[in-house]
Specification:
- With 118 residues, the chain is mainly alpha-helical.
- The chain has 2 domains: 2-60, Winged helix-like DNA-binding domain superfamily/Winged helix DNA-binding domain (Arc Repressor Mutant, subunit A), CATH 1.10.10; 64-105.
- Helix content is 55%, strand content 10%.
- It is built from 6 helices and 2 strands.
- A two-stranded antiparallel ribbon has the order 1-2.
- Helix 2 crosses helix 3 (31-43).
- It is elongated and about 50 Å long.
- The protein starts with a helix and ends in a 13-residue tail after the last helix.
Length: 118
C-alpha cells in the first residue's frame, strides 16, 4: 500500500490532500487507512507535509531514485547479516553498475564533475 500511495503522490501536480490520494487509489480504501499510510511514510521520511487549514498537504520527499534507495535501505535494515547482503548485492552488479559504485565510493561523480568541483 505504501508503494501505491507514493506512486499516486509522484503523479500529483502539486502537494495534495489525503482525500486526493484516496480518490486516486480507488477501491474501498478508507480515508483513515490512507491517513495511517501517509503518517507512516512521514515517520519514515518518505513524504513531507504542510498545513493547509486543518488538514495536511502531502508531497513525496524524494524523486523515484531516492525512493528506490529508501526501499533498498529498508530491506538492508531488515536483514540480520548486512555484510552478507551487501556482498551478495555487489557481486551481482553489472560492470557499469560496479563502475558507478566504485566512483561513488572514491568520492567522484560518475556522471562528471560535481558543481563547484574541478
Amino acid at each position: 500500500m505504501e508503494a501505491q500511495v507514493l506512486t499516486a503522490l509522484h503523479h500529483a501536480p502539486e502537494p495534495v490532500s489525503a482525500a486526493w490520494v484516496q480518490e486516486r487509489l480507488g477501491g474501498d480504501l478508507a480515508y483513515t487507512t490512507v491517513m495511517t499510510i501517509l503518517s507512516r511514510l512521514h515517520a519514515k521520511k518518505a513524504v513531507t507535509r504542510e498545513r493547509s487549514g486543518r488538514a495536511y498537504l502531502w508531497t513525496p520527499a524524494a524523486d523515484e531514485a531516492g525512493l528506490a534507495a529508501l526501499r533498498m535501505r529498508r530491506v538492508l535494515d531488515g536483514e540480520p547479516d548486512r555484510d552478507a547482503v551487501l556482498t551478495s548485492f555487489v557481486s551481482a552488479l553489472s560492470a557499469h553498475d560496479e563502475q558507478v559504485l566504485r566512483a561513488l565510493l572514491d568520492g567522484a561523480d560518475p556522471g562528471g564533475p560535481a558543481p563547484g568541483r574541478d
